[in-house]
Design brief:
Length: about 260
């Protein structure tokens, strides 16, 4: 019964998160879409609108994670093995992240940027806690490639994109409280944010061997390059391009090193 209840909670969380995001996309609060809300706070860190399509991939990974968790909970085993224990602990963070995602989406689309920043920060910290648990478990568990993709990758991709979401949310919040000169057309502020995202990508790629994290940062930086390289601040585009190349190389090297640690069965 306990396992059945946990599975129901997991799938309910996935359903609520996806439904909430679809709802605000189709029926935006105050008659404003996400892109229009961003247009109210123009800044050089704003990527091309198509980059938000990564949410579709993130939600597909949510479904994959829920599906594999269901398999782990109901497979016929006599003992609650270490993999089952890890899955149960990861799903606690997964459930909390789902609630925080809904809070972030609703406050963002109601232009409550202070609360939106709070929820995005809490969501980021929750995912980082899950990431820490995964990293610790890797030292004792020998995960197959499919287990890695099903249990780890959904959190890694989520964390990477939330890194960029948090920086964007912070930028919009600063804009909304009157720090327009700091974030709107400030080359220094934008470059510092790009450098910060790049440093995080390099740490994840080389120290934690998470190539997917760096790959997501590349996706976000491509959006910035496309948006800015032909504008008045073309320097931002070229700086983003340099960061793209650096993160891309890091991702490839990290993937090559990571593959030797996974068991393909």
């Amino acid at each position: 019964m306990k396992r059945t209840f946990q599975v129901v909670l997991i799938w309910l969380t996935v359903l609520i998160v996806i439904s909430c995001n679809i709802y605000v996309y189709l029926q935006p609060s105050n008659e404003l879409t996400t892109s229009q809300i961003l247009d109210l706070h123009p800044n050089l860190l704003m990527p091309a609108s198509y980059t938000s399509g990564i949410w579709i991939f993130i939600f597909l990974l949510h479904i994959l994670h829920a599906s594999y968790s269901t398999y782990i909970y109901f497979r016929k085993t006599e003992t609650w093995c270490p993999l089952s224990v890890l899955t149960e602990k990861m799903n606690r963070w997964f459930l909390l992240a789902g609630l925080l995602n809904v809070g972030w989406v609703l406050t963002w689309h109601n232009q409550q940027y202070g609360w939106s920043l709070f929820f995005s920060s809490a969501l980021y910290l929750t995912l980082m806690a899950a990431f820490a648990r995964l990293t610790k478990s890797e030292r004792t568990l020998q995960l197959t490639y499919f287990q890695h993709v099903s249990l780890e990758t959904p959190f890694i991709i989520y964390i990477a994109w939330l890194t960029f979401v948090f920086l964007s949310n912070l930028t919009v919040y600063l804009y909304s409280i009157g720090q327009v000169e700091l974030v709107s057309n400030s080359l220094g502020y934008t470059v510092s944010m790009i450098i910060l995202a790049t440093i995080l990508a390099l740490i994840q790629a080389f120290y934690f061997k998470r190539p997917a994290f760096a790959a997501v940062i590349v996706w976000a930086l491509i959006g910035i390059y496309v948006q800015q390289h032909n504008g008045s601040f073309s320097q931002v585009g070229y700086i983003a391009l340099a960061a793209i190349l650096l993160c891309l190389v890091a991702s490839v090297i990290s993937f090559w090193r990571k593959r030797s640690l996974l068991y393909v069965r």
